[in-house]
Amino acid sequence: MTNADRARTKSDWSAVRLHVVTGKGGTGKTTVAGALALALAAGGARPGERRILLVEVEGRQGVAQLFDAPPAPYEERRIAVTPDGGEVWTLAIDAEQALLEYLDMFYKLGPAARALRRFGAIDFATTIAPGIRDVLLTGKTCEAVRRRAAPDAGRVFDYDAVVMDAPPTGRITRFLGVNSEVSGLARVGPIRNQADAVMRVLTSAQTAVHFVTLLEEMPVQETLDGFAELRNAGLPAGGVIVNQARPVVLPEERLKKAAEPGGLDRAELALGLGPVGLADPEVVEALADLGTEHARRVLLESGQRDLLAEVGAPLYELPLLAEGVDRVGLDTLAGELHRQGAA
Amino acid sequence: MSPARAFDPDRLLDAPETRIVVCCGSGGVGKTTTAAAFALRAAERGRDVVVLTIDPARRLAQALGLTELDNTPREVAGIDLSGGGRLHAMMLDMKRTFDEIVLEHADPERARQILANPFYQSLSASFAGTQEYMAMEKLGQLRAQGDWDLIVVDTPPSRSALDFLDAPDRLGSFLDGRLIRILSAPAKVGGMGAFKLLAGGVGLVTGVLGKILGSTLLGEVQSFVAALDTMFGGFRERAERTYQLLQTEGTAFVVVAAPEPDALREASYFTERLATDRMPLAGLVLNRVHHPQADITAERALAAAEQLTNGKAAKRAAAGTANGAGAGPGSGNAATEESAAAAQLAAALLRLHAERVVQSRRETRLTGRFLANHPGIPILELPAQAEDIHDLDGLREIIARSA
Predict the structure, then answer these.
(1) Closest among B72, B19, B67, B70 to B42, alpha carbons compared
(2) In chain B, which among 248-277 make CB contacts under 8 A with chain A?
(3) CATH among 3.40.50.300, 2.40.50.140, 3.30.1490.110, 3.20.20.80 for B9-180+234-292+373-402
């Protein structure tokens, strides 16, 4: 066992090779997926030892934008390197390209593919036929998970792990379970076989589906619903990653009173602001209101945190970065994920 | 604060010419809530309004009196009717809307065949795009019914705001398209000599599709298509008609975004698209905007907080505790302890304020970038709120506060 392996076993998900990251729109799942990929890439004994693939399936080029790189073509390329030489690669999976690649691999199509496109069959398969698009996207991802490295590469798999920036919580179970849906629709035939193979990876212990949420009602409710659906579908649930958590600045014994309208003691605040010459009534009023808003949010968030705890999954918290997330910010988040055992 | 033009929702909602308001934007920016707030505002200002929501949060749906997906507009109770307005609300049931189109256009026997077809059942329940198509379809129906003088539409939570405009055409083209004809009638075409070349292509296509899909599924697709035969032309035509409705006067688009890079990027794409298609954009609703309340810079606030926790004042307070200065030992200690606690409180709130200022600066910069690319677009900024909205009062307050 190398040092890197030892460091890795401290992670809650050391056996997982496919991390699916979902979350309600606006919770920052692309950011968290990027940070998780960086965290997983770190810790190798020598440069290039660890290699992670970050896949994107919704065609938004969000990963490229996150890492401030030009839009990715349909090919795997390196997008970031950790300080210890770990590599993050990325692939924006395009359903049409994946289908052509698949057809070529299994049927040696050549010119037939052109005819298919001319008659709208490719369009049909990738945008309209229920579920086929999703099988192509998950299929390509699973292929990357299982892909073995060249014999002389000194590693077993091409990638130590694959992180997927997945569709949002509302669609995730259908997206991942689509293989069973397609299997139901196509009872025999090549799609069925492909779907079954993909499903074997997705339902195994080497996959974990993580939920990104904010400590707000709607995303938390969606997370709870998402977990229930996922478990019903027999898919492996991962952790809950609370994003944009704000620090609590008021001591606990003050919170309840401060949360009431006008509940923050103006006189006390004025006394505190006096020595720095800021005891102006307007300033006192504005800061007191800010304090009340903060206290209300903290209490609300703590209620949401209790709800999330009921899920019974490991909980991780990432801080809000007020300046926005750039590469330095991503490293901060990656460090947090590692420290808390998510990677 | 920003040099932008202000978007006045009342002017839009009060104008009798405004007949349709479409709220678009990427997921998670508060589209549904904005649509509901606009609809309520318009109703209480005297208009007869229906709001079409797609996937409202449970508690918001309850606030609107929507307890089930039943595809029927329900009157919303608890609104102020003194202006002579009314509010109806409904949730879209996409499968039922699709079924209704089939029932309307096919004879009973064919309709039965279509509805029972496994391929149809998958298509109507899960095709990425069905929701958008059906939302458009429902909008067209509500407009044709003519029971309301204002329709407010929320759009499906797609990966991209553009899907609402593009998906219906995609589904329409497919259902009316070449592939469907080929699948439905390969033998017919193959029989004609002049189309030999085409027939060759057709054979290739069905052959490959058979390989990929398997013959059972292909068979189901083909029988679905055969049953759908009577409706050819219908889907695309309907989609096109509704699309045209969106280009007519009386329709206004409201783009909803949050001051975040991704949401503003989507808003930007959508704004460009509206311009290309000559669709009228009423304005941008910017949700969850943070504004500092106190007029103190972040630097000053942080310096003051630092001084309060580590500076002379703090040391003096600590020293005061040590030598027990004051009237009596007990009361002196209590007083200094009190002032130490007050200093801590002040420092905490100053730091919170500094954070807020930094966040606000960032939001202003991001909004400024959007405006630089789309000059002249009116903006309505809605402040961030600690709690979610789940009652009518909450909805009312959204716009009232901004005014």
Answers:
(1) B19
(2) 258, 260-263, 265
(3) 3.40.50.300
Domains of chain A: 3-246+320-339 (3.40.50.300), 249-303 (no CATH)
CB B293 to CB A290 under 8 A?
yes
Beta-carbon separation of B307 and A276 below 8 A: yes
Q: What is the ipTM of this complex?
A: 0.82
The 10s digit of each residue's pLDDT in A316-331 is: 999 998 778 899 999 9
Poorest-confidence range of A85-94, A289-298, B73-82, B183-192?
Answer: B183-192
How far is the C-alpha of A129 from the C-alpha of A150, rounded, in Å? 36
Chain A contact set for B260 (CB, 8 A): 26
**pTM as predicted:** 0.85
Q: Phi/psi zone of residue B125: left (φ > 0), alpha (ψ -120 to 50 degrees), beta?
A: alpha
To test the contact with chain A by mutation, choose from B299, B345, B352, B369 the residue with the greatest count of A C-beta atoms within 10 A, namely B345
Residue B60's φ and ψ, nearest 5 degrees, are: -70, -40
Q: What's residue A128's pLDDT?
A: 62
Flag whether pLDDT at B199 surpasses 60.
Answer: no
In sequence order, what E strands does B29-149 have? Answer: 48-53, 74-75, 86-91
* Residues in A 91-150 with any Cβ partner in B closer than 8 A: 103, 107, 109, 112, 115-116, 118-121, 123-125, 127-131, 133
pLDDT at A87: 97
Distances in Å between the Cα of B334 and the Cα atoms of A272, A295, A341, B272, B390 are 15, 26, 44, 64, 45
